[in-house]
Amino acid sequence: MRVKGKSIIVTGSGGGIGEGIARRLAEEGAQVIVNDINAAMGEKVVADIVKAGGTASFFAADVTKSADVKALVDAAVQRYGKLDVMVNNAGWTHRNRPALEVTEEDFDKCYAVNMKSIYLSTIHAVPVFRANKGGSFINIASTAGVRPRPGLTWYNGSKGAVIITSKSLAAELGPDNIRVNCLNPVFNPDTGLSAEFAGGPVDEERKAKFRASIPLGRFSTALDVANAALYLASDEAAFISGVCIEVDGARCV
Ligand SMILES: NC(=O)c1ccc[n+]([C@@H]2O[C@H](COP(=O)([O-])OP(=O)(O)OC[C@H]3O[C@@H](n4cnc5c(N)ncnc54)[C@H](O)[C@@H]3O)[C@@H](O)[C@H]2O)c1
């Protein structure tokens, strides 16, 4: 088991990609804190993991709120005696539309969920990692942060900020044996955000258009991203920090 006994928080893991990451890490022996703002979804993921023989528990927290994120980190330490890895997966986007049509409210929400959450997890988890002589962040960014397309401008920018901030933190926190890495998934048509990314229902026409830009000829799945997260969370990646792994089937445009 590649992460046996590790205490790992996965934010926004009540559904979508985060759920896939939580399930995969638990399969490989991690003690997982499933976090979400949606308690019913999070509790269901925990129940499934426990039923399958894994270790997980739910903690409701809003990743945009400092007190919530502190409580989330504290919960991992209280429940599992330590925190080894924090997966910052919770994310949100404004609907695909021209940049000038995105409201200020949606802009603020996008940066709060995608980027302020990274600030808050850094502020609250780093002291715990330092006390533990090390730790690891895995930040779920996006191909949007490196190869932006029209219609998601403010979301794209927030993910670009996640990527460069992660690299900067990796440089700053390396001496504390704290690793900081990103994953860049390409479009996944089966999550809560898919229709927002696509700008409408994910019908066959929209799918065909997106698929045509992915040389490996299919979309990413939560499991694809989870397998990459598993590697970064494991000791096999002990010397890997400041990288951004693209889980994108070679999408180049
Ligand atoms: N689906 C894609 O095509 C795709 C592609 C690249 C990157 N991503 C990124 O993957 C991550 C997961 O997205 P997803 O596609 O699985 O979407 P999703 O909506 O299915 O999952 C996101 C989860 O985060 C939770 N969440 C939202 N705001 C929160 C908050 N403030 N505090 C705690 N939890 C909160 C939601 O309740 C939801 O369960 C996001 O960071 C997203 O930007 C998604």
Description:
The chain has a single domain, classed as Rossmann fold, CATH 3.40.50.720. It is globular and about 50 Å long. The chain is built from eight helices and seven strands. Helix 1 (16-27) runs parallel beside helix 2 (39-51), helix 1 crosses helix 8 and helix 4 (104-131) packs parallel to helix 5 (153-173). Strands 3-2-1-4-5-6-7 form a seven-stranded parallel beta sheet, sandwiched between helices. It is α/β, with parallel strands linked by helices and 253 residues long. It is 45% helix and 15% strand. The protein has helices at 16-27, 39-51, 66-80, 104-131, 153-173, 194-198, 204-211, 222-233; strands at residues 7-10, 31-36, 55-60, 85-88, 135-140, 178-185, 244-247. Bound molecules: nicotinamide-adenine-dinucleotide. Nicotinamide-adenine-dinucleotide binds at residues 11-12, 14-18, 36-38, 41, 62-64, 89-92, 113, 140, 142, 185, 187-188, 191-194, 197.
Q: Write down the domain tally.
A: 1
Beta-sheet strand percentage? Answer: 15-25%
Mean pLDDT: 98
Small molecules bound in the structure, each named once: nicotinamide-adenine-dinucleotide
Give the helix tally.
8
Termini separation comes to 37 Å
Estimate the global geometry from the Cα principal axes. Answer: globular
Please write the string of helix (H) and strand (E) elements.
EHEHEHEHEHEHHHE
Helix content: 40-55%
> What's the number of extended β-strand segments?
7
Highest CATH level, the class: Alpha Beta
